[in-house]
Specification:
Strand order of the largest sheet of chain B: 6-7-8-3-9-10
Number of strands of chain B: 10
CATH architecture of one domain in chain B: 3-Layer(aba) Sandwich
Order of helices and strands of chain B: EEEHEEHEHHHEHEHEEHHH
Number of helices of chain B: 10
Shape of chain B: globular
Strand content of chain B: 15-25%
Bound molecules: adenosine-5'-triphosphate, magnesium ion
Distance between the termini of chain A: 78 Å
Number of domains of chain A: 2
Number of helices of chain A: 13
Radius of gyration of chain B: 19 Å
Largest interface: A-B, 12 and 21 residues
Distance between the termini of chain B: 44 Å
CATH topology of one domain in chain B: Rossmann fold
Low-confidence stretches of chain A: none
Helix content of chain A: over 70%
Largest sheet of chain B: 6 strands, mixed
Radius of gyration of chain A: 34 Å
Helix content of chain B: 25-40%
Oligomer: heterodimer
Low-confidence stretches of chain B: 251-259
Shape of chain A: elongated
Structural class of chain A: alpha/beta
Strand content of chain A: 5-15%
CATH superfamily of one domain in chain B: P-loop containing nucleotide triphosphate hydrolases
Chain lengths: 376, 259
């Protein structure tokens, strides 16, 4: 360990003399920066003489430090009244380079935090702006979807099926696992109180209706939000920062049609299919519990089939189409909104997952209310 | 008298309504090799992006082949876009496709050619930039210079009448760079393509450019126009003179922006 640089300050009438010694490298400067700055500031004399005769080594950090000291507030006349003595000639160019930059203390001002009110206002304005762009984007998307339905051969089916495979088929294991466990755990938890009334078999009703109407669609949607919305946002976000989107645009290919539509169509197709799978596996999870309680599988099957209606089932599936559009659109729009830089892609991905889960929750609520009034 | 290919009228270039270049006016003739010059970060790429209709200018008009690029929409804009080819500064190749597929994409989208014809044409374009070997590589597997050349090949895919190249020779070795210059000259000679090029390669500018404009940050405008050989000799504006003669000292003395 080398010794930190030493300094002494002497103040005579109107003249402060600062003597530095040792190594003025990044480490050394770090050790004395604050103390010297305070001491020189405190001296308050108009002329500062910096004596560097004892300095054995100086790098760019040291030069910046000296330049900073010379610039310290002496009523704006710092530069003229400050003087550097004894610097080894080898280091003079460093100091000249460092002094090329005007270090104004004002630069750090923009770091000052906003007040609470300011920040809140800004957040609200940001939120409203975000909502506006989101809605207009959805509008653009619907327009593109309708116009491409008129000419379905213009849709890039190859890409669409590839996306459907990645978002759908590849998601089967995780959707299956989660649904199975949720079905199993729920049945198990419900079986304990039901058993007190000797009504274990009615667990089947509970599992059936809850899975088909709510849990199946919701679990699938949330898994897709985590898997696909994030993937879409990252893919499109990366394309954005690589200027690939710009390249598409100047080739006259509409990015919405080219990139976003295939993803939205793919997800709209696979969400209901995955949900059907999730429903079956969830109910299967319940079956395991019922079997372990000593009932035959047929009893469970009959109970579920007699209780759950086609209406329940279709109600759940219809929701899924909407969830599919929402998840894909959110993923794509967040990706599309990516600013510059690679950390921006991470932010977009996070925003995609959060926004789509929020939207799923909101729309699930809307559907519940709608179904209630429709008597479904 | 040659026809005007591009007309830039009172263009204020910038982002988010903040102009970084103000009131630019210039014309580019058909078949001309036109170079946009200027210090790093002064707004050359931005001006280029306005010219290709990628971002709307703060104010002003861009007229390409008699049609307004800024207000054009739908079919008009699409047909306008098919007449231009753009090679971006960092390539902007589609990362999920091989080089060959990148070049084939515009052909697939806009022509009814059979697939084998498309592939042949795309390989010929890759050959023009000496990239036949890399046809089946992904953009990530290319070197910086190869990526540049792939982007140029893609820009030429549809045989555009105007080619915009943003720093095409940056990162190329002198031989490849000279080869690119020759390619540009040849294409102009045989097809009459108009080139709008942003570049810093003084040698290549002097060799191929018919006319250049030079942008400058401080004045937010054009500080010199004319044939490069003439600008190199012209001592009336020290910044321009120093730029062309790579002269650092003189700039600091005579045209230090701070003084
Ligand atoms: N997306 C953007 N949003 C806001 N400002 C930008 C954006 N892109 C670039 N700028 C700013 O515009 C200015 C000009 O950038 P531009 O890329 O046009 O420079 P350039 O002349 O092409 O430089 P170079 O020679 O280094 O490529 C820069 O100051 C840059 O900070
Ligand atoms: Mg640029």
């Amino acid at each position: 360990m080398s010794q930190p640089p030493q300094f002494t300050i002497t103040t005579a009438t109107n003249i402060t003399t600062l003597c530095l010694s040792g190594r003025l490298d990044t480490k050394g400067v770090a050790a004395v920066w604050q103390r010297v700055t305070i001491a020189v500031g405190r001296a308050k004399s108009p002329t500062l003489i910096i004596n560097l005769g004892e300095v054995d080594y100086m790098d760019m950090a040291g030069a910046a430090f000296i330049s900073h000291l010379k610039n310290l507030d002496h009523n704006g006349t710092a530069k003229e009244r400050s003087q550097v003595n004894g610097l080894k000639s080898a280091y003079t160019p460093l100091l000249v380079l460092a002094e090329k930059t005007d270090i104004k203390p004002a630069i750090t001002n923009h770091l000052s935090p906003h007040s609470f009110v300011e920040q809140t206002g800004k957040n609200v304005a940001d939120f409203l702006y975000d909502a506006k762009t989101f809605i207009s984007f959805i509008g653009e998307l619907i327009f593109a979807m309708v116009s491409s339905l008129k000419a379905p051969k213009n849709i890039r089916w190859g890409e669409t099926f590839l996306m459907a495979e990645r978002a759908g088929v590849d998601a089967l294991p995780i959707v299956g696992l989660i649904s199975f466990i949720v079905g199993l755990v729920m049945a198990f938890q419900a079986a304990i109180p039901m058993k007190m009334f000797g009504a274990e078999l009615y667990v089947a009703n509970l599992i059936g209706i809850a899975t088909v109407r709510e849990l199946g669609p919701l679990m699938t949607a949330i898994v897709l939000a985590g898997r696909s919305a994030s993937a879409f946002a990252a893919e499109i976000g990366t394309m954005k920062i690589n200027e690939e989107i710009d390249a598409l645009t100047v080739m006259g290919m509409d990015p919405v049609k080219f990139l976003i539509l295939p993803r939205v169509i793919a997800l709209t197709m696979v969400t209901p299919l995955l949900t059907i799978f999730a429903n079956l596996v969830g109910i299967l999870g319940g079956a395991v519990v019922i079997l372990s309680l000593g009932y035959p599988l047929v009893a469970y099957y009959n109970q579920v089939v007699n209780f759950v209606t086609w209406q329940d089932f279709t109600g759940g599936i219809i929701k899924c189409f909407v969830f599919g559009v929402l998840i894909a659109a959110t993923g794509c729009i967040r990706g599309y909104q990516t600013q510059m830089g690679s950390s921006a892609v991470g932010q977009s991905t996070t925003r995609a997952v959060v926004s789509s889960i929020v939207l799923i929750a909101v729309f699930d609520g809307i559907f519940s209310i709608m179904y209630y009034y429709m008597g479904v | 008298m040659k026809q005007t290919a591009i007309e830039v009228k009172n263009l204020s270039a910038g982002y988010n309504n903040q102009a970084i270049m103000e009131n630019l006016c210039f014309e580019i003739l058909s078949g001309e090799i036109f170079v946009i010059l200027g210090g790093s970060g002064c707004g050359k790429s931005t001006v280029l992006k306005h010219m290709i209709g990628l971002i709307p200018p703060v104010t002003g008009k861009i007229i390409i082949h008699g049609q307004d690029m800024v207000t054009a929409q739908g079919k008009t804009k699409n047909s306008l876009l098919q007449k231009i080819g753009v090679a971006f500064q960092n390539g902007a190749l589609f990362g999920s496709m091989t080089v060959l597929e990148n070049v084939m994409l515009p052909l697939k989208e806009y022509t009814d050619l059979p697939m084998d014809a498309i592939e042949t044409i795309a390989r010929v374009k890759l050959g023009l930039v000496d990239l036949e070997q890399g046809a089946f590589l992904l953009p990530d597997e290319l070197s910086g210079g190869m990526r540049k050349r792939a982007a140029i090949a893609r820009a030429m895919a549809l045989d555009p009448s105007i080619l915009f190249l943003d720093e095409p020779s940056a990162g190329l070795d002198p031989l490849t760079s000279a080869g690119l210059d020759k390619l540009i000259m040849d294409l102009r000679a045989s097809l009459g393509i108009t080139f709008v090029i942003v570049t810093h390669e003084l040698e290549s500018i002097l060799a191929i450019a018919d006319r250049t404009i030079m942008l400058e940050k401080q004045t937010k405008g054009i500080i010199a126009t004319g044939p490069p050989k003439q600008l190199k000799q012209d001592k009336s504006n020290p910044y321009v003179y120093n730029f062309f003669n790579r002269n650092l000292e003189l700039r600091n003395i005579k045209n230090d922006p701070k003084s």
